[in-house]
Amino acid sequence: MGEIHELASVVLIWLGPATSNSKILQWAMTELSDALITAFDGNLQQPSSITSIRDPRLYSLLDIGDAALVYKKIEYFLSFIQSLRYFRRTWVMQEVAVARRFRTFCGPDDLNLATLLDLWSYMNGHGWLSPFSDMYISSIHQIRLLKSSALWFSLDDKNEKSAEVSDDDRQSWQKLKRQLQCFAISFGTLAVSYAWLLKSLYAT
Length: 204
What we know:
This protein is mainly alpha-helical. It is 56% helix and 6% strand.
């Protein structure tokens, strides 16, 4: 399967059928994401003293409606994401890891997975996700970031590009590899998929 994903011009990722519940994804990736970017001046990586989605200051910053309603929407979004079977299937990690390009769908709706992962990573980084935090989704986000760094290269040309890899990139990869190993041990189902992932990523 890994070879198929790697050679495909585009990989289609299907999260599941569209339901009335899945509309929360569109809300989170548009209205919520835009409000967060505006509230934090376009820098979603900056530190924040808001460490819980229950903090009333968050809703003053977001300014997208009644605080109680927005809180319930955020809580529902986090719960819905973790209910999707896609994020419980270990082998699909290679879709993101080795695909040249991918498109993500929930039913017929074309979604921006990058926005979804950025939003998830931001909320997780600020401690908002407990008890919702999910190792798998965080790992997918890190894979996507590493693909854009100098660390992302094939085993065939590692000697040519190895000098470009920074210490930070190497540490990021080691951290990601440990997370993936923990994930594999927890679920016990990675076998072929995990071997392919390690083959496709250069491990220092």
